[in-house]
Protein 1
Amino acid sequence: MTAHTLAPSASATRRLANADRQAEARTALVSTALGRRSLAVLRFATGFIFLWAFLDKTFGLGFSTPLERAWINGGAPAQGFLTSPAVVGPLKGFFAALAVPATDVLFMAGMLGIGLAVLLGVGLRVSAAAGTALMVLMYLAEWPFTPNAGSTNPIVDYHLIYALALIVLAALSAGDTWGLGRQWKRIPLLGQRRWLL
């Protein structure tokens, strides 16, 4: 009986080398350890914001969702928001039309997926795109452009700050520090699907 050693194919070796070169180039964007670690802390905080929203709305932890309105108790997190007095402005009818049970499932899946992906440092491009879309829609739903709106600033509020944080984290590959970003990028399937990084 002979032992055979399986060597990686030439294309697999090239992909790994290319992934390493790209990781080094991204590290050069933020070249100090303190800068990379600061991005990692921002990534943890941003991911936890989304994950916490999912947990609070699912289990009614009492912070923004009381137990009786929890998703597990029959609450409708997205529908509840979309039909609430918080939704104002000229797009109110559009957002009210979105208040269907499928929206609750999509909203909650989005919060969980974005939160976990950002916390783990994987799929940051997809989570940045999805999170930015979600935050811009919520920003427009609350229509902060009128006096006495829910926001204290009519131009830049927390929705836009969260969206910008997601974009920065993805653009600077923040998942590579204290996350699974480097390992994620080495998955062969993702080499040709850069948008999944």
Protein 2
Amino acid sequence: MASEKQRETRRAEPLETFEVVFPQDLNPMHTMFGGAVVALMDKAAGIVVSRWARRPAVTASIDAIQFLTPLRQGQMVQISAHVVYVGKSSCMARVQVWGNDISSGDRHFCCEGYFTMVTMDANFRPVGLPLIPVESDEEKTQWEYARQIKQAMLERRDRARRMEEE
């Protein structure tokens, strides 16, 4: 793999996508199933990373998602995804979700999560990634936050592996 200085730097364009909450998306409380929201988030993370990396991406881990407000039938769901951190063969996408009331125009924040994605070659092996430019204060803050999430995820993975060996 190329050294950090030889790696290409490529700007990752953010992804904005929309869905509508239909009756089949609802749980018994008449709000959107949490798993359905996570699936939309996971799909957005995969798309934003694949488009940037120019390779298929798969999910390696998902950081804790806190559902702050529910999504209700008929609302438009707005999903925003950005690549915020890059390692050697994995990267992290920050995915945010809002609910939009179509009739009133009111918008509320639902949740966010950080998705660690790995790009794969044709033989399902991880491949190296380009870097992203980290220039603004917000980009630096997100990079550092994502780096801390990755470190905590690696520590949890190591603990789980040790437990498996016992």
